[in-house]
């Protein structure tokens, strides 16, 4: 009778509950999460809610696993799942069978190519979170395809018939970004001859994709936080708050936690956006995906042409600092250099 218990069926649901119902003291965790690796989930929890005590549960006996309340989490998880091992296998302990099976069986995403373990995890997480209203933060280096994942979340969500509105926070001048997002009332500034809704309002019923969120001016972040938390927008020059029904997906290649420490990004906004983080691995860590991606782009730019083994070897040896975007450009150039040939040779590839 002392405790008020709230149950969640996934890591994403648990994180959302913790944000909307602060003050929790204990989290009982079944390590076989359907959407996140337990190490990832607990890393987020321990950073966002340091006062929360995490207890690992053995779901077969409903008992707390031994040594499960210590820190750091990765070590205690490994020890809890394999307490007699001399050298705990953290990686094995952090990957429940249920999660791996779900990731393996997850359908692919339209326009996204790759079958590496990193991409299989992205497919699984995308499908799990798409059906919910949870805010998603997609991170990864430039050129890894964050926009494709954002589109996929919208396309397989219940909101897919509604608008998908993209706002590149780095491409719009700071002086115009607020009016672009929130709109303005007639007479709000010189030249405002009539009222106009912003892109947030234009996404009504659908999804708003805030790309390069790390470049959003600090002065505007408080208004974005209010919109994300309360679903309200206020146009420039107006005192009226308008309710909107918009799901938010954000993306960045910046280190938001580093920006928070530098006081360049609001900490409360970061935690509100990072309820469900999806991290895209750089292409250099997805070696097995390079040939598949290369052939995908070959068929896009020059159907019927093939890559020689030497050309594929040259592509696989490259480190791809520009990630998938760089590979796409290299293949487009190579398809031109190949001329009337029916194959792309190593000499056609410039890296």
Order of helices and strands: HEHEEHHHHEHEHEEHEHEEEHHEHEHHE
Shape: globular
Q: What is the count of DSSP helices, taking H or I runs of 4+ residues?
A: 15
Distance between the termini: 66 Å
Residue fraction in strands: 5-15%
Estimated radius of gyration: 23 Å
| Largest sheet: spatial strand order | 5-8-11-4-12
Strands, count? 14
Which class best fits the helix and strand makeup?
Answer: alpha/beta
Explain the layout of strands and helices:
Blueprint: H1 11-20, E1 26-29, H2 38-48, E2 53-58, E3 63-64, H3 73-81, H4 90-93, H5 97-105, H6 117-130, E4 136-139, H7 146-155, E5 164-168, H8 174-182, E6 183-184, E7 196-197, H9 199-202, E8 207-211, H10 218-230, E9 232-234, E10 241-243, E11 247-252, H11 256-261, H12 267-273, E12 276-279, H13 290-301, E13 306-307, H14 309-317, H15 323-337, E14 343-344
Parallel strand pairs: 1-2, 4-11, 4-12, 5-8, 8-11, 13-14
Antiparallel strand pairs: 2-3, 6-7, 9-10
Helix pairs in contact: 5-6, 6-7, 10-12, 13-15
């Amino acid at each position: 009778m002392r405790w008020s218990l709230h149950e969640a069926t996934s890591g994403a649901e648990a994180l959302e509950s913790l944000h909307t119902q602060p003050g929790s003291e204990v989290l009982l965790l079944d390590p076989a999460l359907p959407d996140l690796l337990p190490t990832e989930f607990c890393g987020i929890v321990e950073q966002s809610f340091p006062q929360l005590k995490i207890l690992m549960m053995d779901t077969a006996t409903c008992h707390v696993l031994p040594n499960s309340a210590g820190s750091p989490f990765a070590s205690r998880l490994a020890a809890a799942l394999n307490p007699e091992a001399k050298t705990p296998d953290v990686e094995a302990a952090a990957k429940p069978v249920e999660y791996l099976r779900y990731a393996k069986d997850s359908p692919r995403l339209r326009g996204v190519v790759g079958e590496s373990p990193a991409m299989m995890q992205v497919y699984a997480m995308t499908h799990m979170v798409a059906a919910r209203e949870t805010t998603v933060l997609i991170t990864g280096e430039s050129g890894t395809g964050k926009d494709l994942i954002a589109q996929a979340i919208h396309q397989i969500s219940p909101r897919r018939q509604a608008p998908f509105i993209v706002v590149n926070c780095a491409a719009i001048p700071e002086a115009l970004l607020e009016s672009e997002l929130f709109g303005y009332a007639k007479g709000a500034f010189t030249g405002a001859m009539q009222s106009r809704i912003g892109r947030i309002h234009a996404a009504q019923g659908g999804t708003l994709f805030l790309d390069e969120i790390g470049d959003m001016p600090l002065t505007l972040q408080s208004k974005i936080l209010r919109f994300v938390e309360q679903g309200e927008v206020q146009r420039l020059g107006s005192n009226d708050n308008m309710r909107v029904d918009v799901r938010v997906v954000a993306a960045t290649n910046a280190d938001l936690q580093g920006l928070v420490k530098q006081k360049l990004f609001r900490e409360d906004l970061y935690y509100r956006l990072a309820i469900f983080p999806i991290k895209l691995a750089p292409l250099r860590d997805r070696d097995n995906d390079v040939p598949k991606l290369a052939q995908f782009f070959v068929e896009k730019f020059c159907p019927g042409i093939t890559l020689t083994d030497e050309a594929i070897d040259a592509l696989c040896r490259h480190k791809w600092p520009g990630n998938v975007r760089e590979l796409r450009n290299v293949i487009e150039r190579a398809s031109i250099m190949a001329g009337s040939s029916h194959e792309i040779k190593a000499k056609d590839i410039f890296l």
